[in-house]
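Hi support team,

I've been running sequence recovery on a batch of backbones for a student project. Most finish fine, but this one hangs at about 90% for roughly twenty minutes before it completes. I'm not sure whether the input is malformed or the queue is just slow. I've pasted the structure tokens below so you can try to reproduce it. Let me know if you need the job ID as well.

Thanks,
M.K.
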């Protein structure tokens, strides 16, 4: 279960994970459609982004920095950094958004931003690329870039 705050009335709703595959969940109080992606961010997990959803989830985000972690299954340093990004997502509290992109499965976005080595973390704000972190870094170093 995840807790999703209704963007219409502010009520907190408990929703089963994966509920969107069956039907659009609505707010128990005002019946407005609930945004489960905001729910995933509120639950403190990195949001998985693909070539198809990149523009909508990352470029269209307004007002807060969005970190995009470009990673692959076979990349050892990516696996080392994954728990750090999980922690940063858990501590985000609405100040920034942590997202992840599998470069093997999403070549368009990887080519567009010229990802030559991984992990590479791209930081976007209001649809623009504002910073780039190449290689595994400490949690403090990444957090500092998000401030
Ligand atoms: Zn509501």
């Amino acid at each position: 279960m995840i807790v999703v705050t209704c963007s219409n009335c502010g009520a907190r709703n408990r929703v089963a994970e994966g509920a969107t595959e069956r039907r659009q969940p609505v707010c128990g109080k005002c019946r407005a459609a609930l945004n489960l992606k905001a729910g995933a961010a509120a639950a403190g997990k990195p949001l998985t982004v693909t070539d198809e959803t990149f523009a909508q989830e990352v470029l269209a985000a307004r007002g807060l920095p969005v970190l995009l972690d470009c990673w692959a299954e076979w990349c050892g340093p990516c696996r080392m950094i994954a728990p750090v990004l999980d922690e940063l997502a858990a501590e985000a509290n609405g100040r920034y958004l942590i997202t992840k992109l599998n470069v093997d499965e999403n070549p368009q976005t990887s080519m567009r931003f010229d990802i030559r080595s991984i992990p590479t973390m791209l930081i976007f704000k209001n649809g623009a690329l504002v910073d780039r972190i190449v290689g595994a870094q400490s949690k403090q170093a990444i957090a500092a870039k998000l401030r």
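--
Follow-up from support: It reproduced on our side and the slowdown came from queue contention, not your input. The longest strand covers residues 128-134. No action needed from you.
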